[in-house]
Design goal:
By secondary structure, the chain is mainly alpha-helical. The chain has four helices and three strands; from the N terminus they run αβαβαβα.
Amino acid sequence: MMLHGDIEITPVIERLQAYASAGADCLYAPGVRKPGHIRAIVDAVAPKPVNVLVVEPEMTVPALAALGVRRVSIGGRLRLRVRVLMRRRRS
């Protein structure tokens, strides 16, 4: 479930708790951006690890770790960055 804009975090947390109860080893809600939402998710599913997709520049590994995040994904960002660099090099 992707999260965008001002969303209600409660249904997201309920779904992640259901996944945890079903045996998920790591929980992931792609697109969560707000530190308060991230912290609420981490607290709600503890001690299960939470994975966060980096979508904002301020979402650094230390900042996410301080919120309790234990895994970080970059999605397609690395591929996009390499593509930009390769285009610049060709120019």
